[in-house]
Amino acid sequence: MHFKMKEEQLETNNNFDPLDMNNYRIERLPKRAKSKVEAFLSKIGGPLAVLVFVFIYFFLKPGFLQSIDPSALTDYARNIFDAKGLPEFSRMNIAMMAIFLAGIVLWMTEAIPNYLTSLILIIALVLTGVLGEKEAYAQLGHKVMWLNIMSFVLASMLVKTGLAKRFALWFIVHFGKYSSSIFLSFLLINVVLSAFISATTAKAAILLPIFMVISAVYGARGGDKKNNFGRNIVLQNLFYINIGASGFLTGSGANLLAAALITGATGVDIYFTDWMKGNFLVAIILMFLGYIVATRIFFPLKKEERLPQIPGGMERLKEELHKLGKMNFQEIKSMMLFLGILAMWSTDKYHGISPTAVAFIGAIIALMPRIGILKWNDVDIPWHLMLFSAGAYTLGAGFKATDLPALSVNATFDALGFGEQTPFWVLYLALTFAMAFSALIFQSKTMRTMIFVPIAIGVANRFGFSVISLALPVAFLIEHVYMLPFNSKPAALLYETDQYSMTDSFKFGFTMLVIGWLTSIVMGETWYRYLDITPNGVFGIF
Q1: Is 372 exposed, middle or buried, given 0-12, 13-18 or 19+ CB atoms closer than 10 A?
Q2: What are phi and psi of 324, to 5 degrees?
Q3: Closest to 453 in 3D by CA, of 312, 265, 273, 292
Q4: What digits encode the pLDDT tens for the residues 171-199?
Q5: What is the pTM of this model?
Q6: Could you give the CA distance from residue 319 to residue 315 in angstroms, rounded to a whole number?
């Protein structure tokens, strides 16, 4: 009791109100203390990245695979390589490999900020001659970047008018009377926001203050005061934010990029309704499974964690909702504008205007003097995250210029003896597995999209299958980026709340990644087959 009083007195002296949402704005999040392992990795990350780059760039020579002693190969591999020849890596391929692997080391160890790693990668690609300056620097103007920027403008409109806060608070107050219903309420909130907001980071920024206040109400204060309620609410929201986005073509820029790549390869447009018909059901199933896995297996709530720890905590949320008063004209305008944007996105098959162009129009209307809703100074765009993304796009452009992924995959397929009669199910399992579990090492879903969707397209063409049958199921797995802090911008942001450890994130995230991949296989045999995405299912059982 004495300790509790002392703690409350300390909080009063520091003028920190755990129920004040303003304390949980992105710019106010405290710098997260690193564990001993994280601190060690951070120290060795820089030198290790330099060693990786130097070894690959300066010591590997073009055609280095030809120097392999044939006697070191198995008879099977020797026969394959004798027949097809070893793939040749050019100087540019080697440079690309060196930059990519050094970047992976920096991203995984967090030796330097992620946006700074991106800037280093961009200039390294220029200085090594992998990309010209024009192409490397132009990635900041990629249409997906513009979609993200416009989405942050629209998200800022929701924040300024209080519409997003009103919606989330109303939902929690009315349906979040118990700890379990709070988690399910955030599931539904994320589904709704995913239909309107094309930036997962923007969703995270909107929801973070709300679920952090609820965490405080239930005694989860982060740091040495972690509990399973806090782990659940943050990790589940991270999962919902990403998987909710997978149900809509406009859920993230990476989805739009994948659709554009498939359309470019087939000449067949992938519309908002097509994507939603294919993967919205899958997203809902996975989100409910995530809730069950988190609350029943990894982070079950103790009896005391199911009850509010701060007296009047939920009443404070009701007060916050009451303070907003009746919905004003600006909120109504925001709601009408978002409904209009959603209507335009969902009818793109009929009018042909791209989702990025629709977001542009919405942002212009929101910023328009006199008739608009906000001013430019009201817009909160996290430019460090934009630079972070620009590095991923530039890296993807480097892969495209060097054709390194295709070269590596073709060599692997040849080495494994994949002939022209390879069954569809083998290719489906291999490609979906590669896309899903690439999140273990790849920093960005955009990068994964630019690597694995073209590979799926190339494999489909090589083996004579429909591009849609392999590339679209691969694209549906883009949003599985919740396992490690470097997997996505929301993952990096929510990790800073210090409500969970990297171990917590990995065990929950890896389990859901496996479940997500297995669900993709089941859907390939059933739902995707019904929609004529997979020709005869994955295994052709039904």
Answers
A1: middle
A2: -70, -20
A3: 265
A4: 777 776 677 788 888 898 888 888 777 77
A5: 0.71
A6: 6
